Structure formats: C-alpha cells, structure tokens
Amino acid sequence: MAFIDYYKILGVPKSASESAIKKAYRKLARKYHPDLNPNDKIAEKKFKEINEANEVLSNAENRKKYDQYGEHWQHSEEYEKANQQKQYQKTYSGGTGGYNEEEFSDFFENMFGGRASGPGNRQVKFRGQDFNAELRLDLKDVYTTHKRTLTVNQKNIRITIPAGVQDGQVIKIKGHGGKGINNGPNGDLLIQFSIVNHSKFKRDKDNLYVTLDVDLYSALLGGELMVDTFNGKVKLNIKPETQNGTKVKLKGKGFPKYKKVDEFGDLYITYQIKLPKTLSDKEKELIKQLQTLRA
In this structure, are residues 143 and 163 in contact, taking their beta carbons and an 8 Å threshold? Predict the structure, then answer.
C-alpha cells in the first residue's frame, strides 16, 4: 500500500494547528464539492482524498497514530501488540509454544492483507475506514424531517434528515464507509451539516429571533398586527405605550427540537418603533398641540 501524505493533500505542514487543518479542509471541500463540479471525475477523486485526509488529521488521536504509523495508522494497536510479542519471543527459550521469526513475518503479512502460513491460514479482520462528507442545506430544509438521496462512491444512499439538525452537527450512517479488510466490517459515513440561513430569523439552537417594525400610533395606542413566524402568520396584540426595544416571546413558535417529536423552541420578537416621515402641516400642528399638553 503506497504511502498517502495527508498533509500534502490538504496543503498544510506537518506542524499545522487544528484550526489551520480545519480551514484548509473547508476551503478545498468547497472547491471540489461534487455539487459544484458535476460529472468531473478528477474533482470527485480529489474530494474523496480531501475527506479522507481530514478524517485522519482533524482527530488528535488518529493524527498521532498516522504520524507514527503512516498508512497503517488504523492498525496501530495490532502493530504494537505484534512488536511486544516479538520482543517476548526474543527472550523466550525452550517449550513447545515458542515462536520463530517466520511466524512473526507471517503475522505482519496477515495484518496488512497477506496470507498467513500458520495453522488454519487464519486472517485478521479489520474495520474499513470512515468517510467524511459535508451536506449543505437551507434553514427551511431542516425545519421538517425529510428524506434525501446522496451519492457516495457511485452508490445512492437514501437517508432521513431529522428536523432540527444544527449547523456543524455530524450524523453517522453506519456501514457506508470504506470496505472492511478480510471480511471485516465496513466503516461509517460521517455527514457534517452546513446550514445556510436565508430567512429574516436568527437561529440560536431551538430558538428564533426577529426584529419587528411597529408604527408610532400602534406603539402609543396599542393594536393588532399579523406577524410572520417560520411556518405561518399569527395575530399579535401590541400593548398601549409600548417602548422601542420591547421584547416579547411567542412560546413554541421557534425551531423544532432535534429528534423530539412536536417539541419546539420559542420565537423572540424585538419591537422597533418606526417614526412617521413627510408629515403634513396638519399633522405637525396636532403634534405641537400634544407637545404643549405633555409639557
């Protein structure tokens, strides 16, 4: 198996920080994403390499194993165990259960895909590599649970995306990663969500926030307004003498809670009082009268 330089793939030095690796990955993932490069086999291959490199280098433990064992990083525990056994063999003398150099040579061949010459020709099974992918969605797409078909390694995978998925959240699709070695289990597919918000609402976990313009007269005298929520309109009563910056909460009108059926966050509305413009002479006169009364 040829050595794969994951640092070179991401274009970062071996001493790169976690944030530098993350920044490099996101930049390259956007550049070579299949959605932006349809039917481009070179970009598709590059995208897979980038995800593989990030899967290893973005995890501190995996990165340490990779720096020490290279392409065999996933089998570091077996490698260390074999080394310990070999050291034991060097000091072991006599008995019918001793090991020889050929048996250890076979063990290492077996570890990395070769055939063992020992009893029963047994082969060691290894779990396949995990795959990483990024899925971009609009905020409105994750307001309801829905299904979506993804193409991974030229295979279509239909997944269910639960309502309330957060930006940056990662979900695992078991068994859809790299193929296992020697009939070992497949790795998993790890999907990270990138949620783009084109709505007027600001989202913070399960809660939504919005600023609402209120005319001067409704603020002074009170009134009713039809207010947009994320899934429709509701009637809102404005109290008389409402001040600029007043905040109100609409319970249960926020965003769905992840994997909690019929549970929602809240919608917080901040009032912004809008003063009238282009006053008529009559309006100015009436306001002057009001000013005199208030004085």
Answer: yes
